[in-house]
Design goal:
globular
Length: 160
């Protein structure tokens, strides 16, 4: 279970925290909590269950961080395209990726979570289960989050 899902959990938590060390710690915390709560696992799909555990680990960490000032790390979670050889194209891809990350940070927390989980190929029902909301709320948050991202992207492109 760990080998199959550790990279996806780490990427998800990294996109939320934007801190490699914190994402590693939360990934470890996720699998530790999953191990401790195996009695609560009732045969449902493992991946959504693990993401739900990761989400709750993130929420707990985020609540603790709310009491302290937030310090964002300006790192990218992953390179936009590993196959690009042209340096100019690499710079453009990096700038676009950074802009997308900045836009994502401007969204309300629920919209950000729904967009990240949808990008991780979860169904609406799985996202609803992970976040503890209903499917209609998932659809609404995804639609509004995507709309807001498009608007912020256009506004950012117009400003440059």
């Amino acid at each position: 279970m760990y080998k199959l899902h550790v990279n996806d959990i780490y990427r998800y938590l990294f996109r939320l925290t934007r801190d490699a060390r914190q994402a590693e710690d939360l990934t470890q915390e996720t699998f530790f909590r999953a191990f401790l709560s195996l009695d609560d696992y009732h045969g449902e799909k493992v991946r959504p269950w693990l993401f739900k555990v990761a989400y709750h680990a993130f929420v707990d960490w985020h609540r603790k961080q709310a009491k302290r000032p937030l310090q964002l790390v300006g790192q990218l979670p992953e390179h936009a395209d590993q196959q690009v050889d042209d340096p100019a194209e690499t710079v453009v891809n990096k700038e676009m990726w950074e802009m997308a990350q900045e836009i994502l940070l401007q969204l309300p927390e629920k919209q950000k979570q729904v967009i990240l989980l949808a990008a991780a190929s979860f169904s609406y029902a799985e996202i609803a289960e992970i976040l503890g909301i209903d499917v209609a709320d998932v659809k609404r948050s995804l639609f509004r989050g995507r709309q807001k991202m498009r608007k912020l992207w256009r506004d950012g492109a117009d400003g440059e």
